[in-house]
Amino acid sequence: MTTSGGEGTSAAGGRRRRGPGMTEVARAAGVSQKTVSRVVNGEPHVSPEVRDRVLRAIRELDYRPNTAARALLLGRYRRIGVVSLGSTLYGPSTLLIALERAMRRAGYSVALATTLEGQRISAAVDALLEQGVDGIVLSEPIDDGTPLRLSADVPVVSLGEGVELTPGTSAVVGADGVAAARIATEHLLSLGHRTVWHLPGPQDWWAARDRLRGWREALAAAGAPEPPLPSPGDWSPASGYAAGRQLAGLSDVTAVFAANDDMAIGALRAFADAGRAVPGDVSVVGYDDIPAAAYLSPPLTTVRQNFAAVADRAVDVLIALIEGRPAPAGPADRAVELTVRASTGPVREPGPAPHPAPAP
User: Fold this and answer.
1) How much is the CA Rg of the chain, to the nearest whole Å?
2) Which of 34, 213, 310, 345 has its CA 20 to 30 A from that of 329?
3) Could you tell me which residues belong to the region Disordered (predicted)?
4) What CATH number labels 177-305?
């Protein structure tokens, strides 16, 4: 580990040549160390000619002040903050990896603040601002459902609709969970199902609320009745199984849209245990297209999210805002698409009523 202007230890344990310090910069620029410090820290009372001389010496010597001083010197931290859940679930973790890759390609490092342990979004934003960031991405946070009005002195990009942002320095981008849920629900309705039941995710998640809203919008647009909701799940197969057990006993349930693939997997097991065939008796659609979705029995119809496209667009928009340029127009290309597999099919025409079982 090295510090600016000091000696370090090499991987082999030997001493290595220290980088140039403030003394060398002062000597090269023909000024005092105090003047170099003033320039590095952005202080006034330095003439433009002297400031230019010091900056030229810094560049020529490749002097590396600490992060805070370098931010004052260059006007940027080259770091972007991300408010995320810190979750290992497929969607949030895959999106976070995609964001980090996009930021590093653009020459920015990443600072992370999570909300999974109950920290409010505003507190997470404050923590990032204290670290020093040039902009912030709000990615898959959770909240208490009340409107959040967020004001920050850096640009902010949100990947959800659950926050009111400062106009002009902020934007909402990302995969449209509402539209994706509509696509999933419309697919089932197009197969002749009278209505579609929904297995909702936890309602303190923006993503779960978007998918619930899209399901409702699709039913309303089609004039289909809205069935009652089972208790919200927690994204796990176990919660999908519990909800699926409730629905398996209802003969009018022929189509189900689950808020994620793991809950859909639980529902598939519940229907199988109840003797209801998929898709013969019940069609099931998930959300996320996890790697296992194509290898289930039957393979799962699901909404695929293009996490790389979402991340690239979010970073492009945020950097444009940081640099004071107009944000690039247009949604992420193919951010969501329906992947149709064998878990969905046409509604089965009702057959003759079964004969009652003989009395024992």
Assistant:
1) 27
2) 213
3) 1-29, 341-360
4) 3.40.50.2300
- Structure tokens of 271? 């229907």
Q: Tell whether the model's pLDDT for residue 219 goes beyond 70.
A: yes
Other beta carbons within 10 Å of 268: 25
Q: Where are the strands (E) in 186-318, listed by range?
A: 197-199, 255-258, 283-288, 301-305
Query: Among residues 133, 135, 76, 85, which one has the least CA distance to residue 315?
Result: 135
Strands 135-138 and 156-158, bridge-based pairing: parallel
Q: Output the average pLDDT for the chain.
A: 83
Q: Distance from CA of residue 134 to its chain's centroid?
A: 19
Instruction: Name the pTM for this structure.
Output: 0.75
Amino acid in the structure at residue 62: D
Q: For residue 283, how many C-alpha atoms fall within 13 Å in the half-sphere facing its CB?
A: 25
Summarised one tens digit per residue, pLDDT across range 258-273 is: 999 999 999 999 999 9
Please tell me what DSSP assigns to residue 116: T
Answer yes or no: are the C-beta atoms of 124 and 141 closer than 8 Å. yes
Domain boundaries, the chain: 18-74, 79-175+308-333, 177-305
Confidence of residue 147 (pLDDT cuts 50, 70, 90): low
Residue 269, pLDDT score: 98
Instruction: Count the Cβ atoms, other than its own, within 10 Å of residue 153.
Output: 7
Compute the distance between CA of residue 250 and CA of residue 253 in angstroms, rounded to an integer.
Answer: 6
pLDDT digits (tens, 9 = 90+) for 97-107: 999 999 999 98
Two tokens at 92?
């949030």
Whether residue 68 has pLDDT greater than 70:
no
- CATH code for the domain defined by 79-175+308-333: 3.40.50.2300
User: What contacts 77, CB < 8 A, 6 or more positions away?
Assistant: 67, 70, 71, 132, 133, 134
Domain 18-74 and domain 177-305, same fold? Reply is: no
pLDDT tens digits, 301-339 = 999 988 999 999 999 999 999 988 887 776 554 578 999
Q: Which two tokens stand for residue 282?
A: 């019940």
